[in-house]
Amino acid sequence: MVKRFGWFVVFMAVITVLCFHGEALAKKLLKGYDTLVVGEVTVKSDAGIPERYAPDLKDALLRQLQRYNAKYKWFKKITTTVPSSKEGVVVIKAQILSYVPATAGRRIRKSFVPGGEWMGSASVQFNCAFIDGGNGTVVLNQDVNAKSSGSDDTVEYAIERGAEYIAKVVGKNR
Are residues 23 and 80 in the same domain? Predict the structure, then answer.
């Protein structure tokens, strides 16, 4: 029994080392890039989403990435225009897949609900692909399902939170 338990402990130690090693490799996906370009944001054709959300997502991505970059200094430059030299450049291309507009809970307001809670919610789903500027390969692909609820139950707020999540993904992969 003790012999089996010893092998189990060794097996679990090996699995733990492999898991942490894999996580350490994943953190290096965006290493070596000096410039981050927030590229085009498209809306999936069959998603039924208003086109006006594409510029909102692009602006939110740029704003959140610049905000985090000011604090952590991940990149030398974050912009929306691709530089002439694409060496050391990573481009984010996003596609909005679907959304759920704000529900009626926002209109009900706090005063009508016993207990005083906001009940509305909204969400937006999008995909961000991080593409190497030099060779065009996808370095990182991230799906986002951003939700907002309570007093901030708008799709715009969900987009802002999703952009903030992408900035945190960039931080984990630097």
Answer: no
